[in-house]
Amino acid sequence: AAGLERLLWLACVAKSGDICGFFVGRAIGRTKAIPRISPGKTVEGCAASLLGAVAVGWGLGAGVGWLPGLGLPTLLAAGLI
Fold this sequence. Notes:
Largest sheet: 2 strands, antiparallel
Strand order of the largest sheet: 1-2
Strand content: 5-15%
Structural class: mainly alpha
Number of strands: 2
Distance between the termini: 23 Å
């Protein structure tokens, strides 16, 4: 059961980062991040993606209890990664 919760946690963190980056980038994104590699990616979208992933990683890990026993620094680092 713990393995399934961790896998679900990882999927939620990854998708939340994608979703936050997409919507914020479309709404307020102005500064192109790496136009030669990804022409539509903006710095604002990248920042929102990072913050969204960290917030959901911490929220599901600590708040919901999917990753018990891990402290705040570990959960934040996992969301960053």
